[in-house]
């Protein structure tokens, strides 16, 4: 696995990072641990989590995993979006009562697609948003450190913040204080690319890293002006691989030609995802590229594919294929509240 130092920081880590948004989808901590083990065994040492993920439980799972390994890993967590409060039990996803309720809700969701749809809708509407007041931010960060069972994080990110949130002098002062205390190594905004307003120069220089969605069809990393002095982390890099594979089947002759040129079956979504990972890694040398999976075998497979460099000619051929088979009704923003 290629290593890098995130630009504008002293944070060294793997070029491929693992997104922990789905850690609680397994139904058991042991299964979640297996996915994290698969990532680490594959050479991935950067793990991205948030206070919101898993109703506030994902940080705790990652916290168990990193024990005895902390000096080998880099950890990014986020604040600004908080887990829904549960009436009568307590807010923020903490406590044994909440964990039992979440376990029951997850079991129900596995039994019914309608329950899953209703649960996503209810969760999205009840997320506590825009928690960027320094008092709220400090409180969230303290919970994160406790859940992660660590004395510091490598990156602390503002989850889906607006430019007006990031420009708060009192928030920047609070974050700089955490850097001075050694509890944060660098901080910056993380969210949908549209929120960055096309220009990194609009954001205070204190924000040394920027995390946003970018992929082969939506190469946002090349659309953000004045980003050359910032660390960059990308997510949603394999977005719509399945849909692209399905559309490719409608044009077998051209798909066959591209498949021969690239040496893979471009009607296979897993092969397309592997190429999208490789393309994202070639496009971004300023920081990690994130992906997420709940399947240990797929994690190992993706890490192996991503280890192969992608030549410029391959990128041109693949880019043309993706643009030809990309959706026409796409939106830049990831699913609200659940993107890395």
Q: How do the strands of the widest beta sheet line up side by side? A: 9-8-7-6-5-4-3-10
Described by strand count, sense and barrel closure, the largest sheet is:
8 strands, parallel
Strand content: 5-15%
Please tally the β strands and state the result.
10
CATH topology of the domain at 12-83 and 127-238 and 285-294: TIM Barrel
User: What does the average pLDDT come to?
Assistant: 88
Written account of the structure:
It is a single chain. This protein is 41% helix and 14% strand. With 340 residues, the protein is of the alpha/beta class. The protein has a domain at 12-83 and 127-238 and 285-294: NADP-dependent oxidoreductase domain (TIM Barrel). A hairpin with a 6-residue loop joins strand 1 and strand 2 (12-14). The radius of gyration is 20 Å and the shape is globular. The relative contact order is 0.15. The model is unreliable at 86-101, 107-111 and 328-339 (pLDDT under 50).
Question: In terms of topology, how is this protein built?
Answer:
Blueprint: E1 3-5, E2 12-14, E3 16-19, H1 29-41, E4 46-48, H2 58-65, E5 74-79, H3 96-111, H4 113-126, H5 134-148, E6 153-159, H6 163-166, H7 169-180, E7 184-191, E8 209-213, E9 231-235, H8 241-248, H9 252-262, H10 269-283, E10 289-291, H11 296-306, H12 312-325
């Amino acid at each position: 696995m290629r290593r890098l130092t995130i630009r504008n920081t002293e944070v060294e880590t793997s070029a491929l990072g693992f997104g922990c948004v789905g850690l609680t989808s397994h139904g058991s901590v042991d299964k979640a641990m297996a996915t994290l083990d698969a990532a680490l065994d594959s050479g991935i040492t950067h793990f991205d989590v948030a206070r919101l993920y898993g109703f506030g439980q994902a940080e705790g799972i990652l916290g168990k995993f990193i024990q005895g390994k902390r000096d080998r890993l880099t950890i990014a967590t986020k604040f600004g979006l908080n887990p829904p409060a549960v009436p009568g039990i307590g807010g923020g996803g903490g406590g044994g009562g909440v964990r039992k309720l979440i376990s029951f809700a997850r079991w129900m969701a596995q039994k019914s697609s309608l329950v899953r749809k209703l649960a996503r809708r209810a969760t999205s509407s009840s997320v506590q948003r825009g928690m960027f007041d320094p008092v709220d931010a400090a409180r969230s960060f303290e919970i994160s450190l406790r859940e992660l069972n660590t004395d510091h994080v490598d990156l602390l990110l503002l989850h889906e913040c607006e430019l007006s949130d990031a420009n708060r002098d009192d928030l920047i002062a609070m974050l700089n204080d955490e850097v001075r205390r050694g509890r944060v190594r660098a901080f910056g905004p993380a969210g949908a690319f549209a929120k960055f307003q096309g220009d990194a120069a609009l954001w205070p220089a204190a924000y040394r890293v920027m995390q946003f969605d970018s992929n082969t069809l939506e190469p946002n990393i090349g659309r953000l002006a004045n980003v050359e002095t910032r660390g960059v982390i990308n997510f949603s890099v394999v977005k719509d691989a399945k849909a692209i594979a399905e559309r490719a089947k409608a044009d077998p002759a051209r798909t066959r030609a591209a498949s021969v040129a690239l040496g893979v079956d471009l009607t296979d979504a897993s092969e397309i995802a592997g190429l999208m990972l490789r393309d994202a890694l070639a496009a971004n040398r300023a920081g990690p590229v994130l992906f997420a999976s709940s399947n240990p075998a797929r994690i190992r497979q993706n890490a192996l594919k991503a280890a192969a460099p992608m030549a410029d000619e391959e990128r041109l051929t693949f880019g043309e294929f993706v643009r030809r088979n990309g959706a026409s009704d796409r939106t830049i923003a990831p699913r609200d509240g659940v993107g890395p």
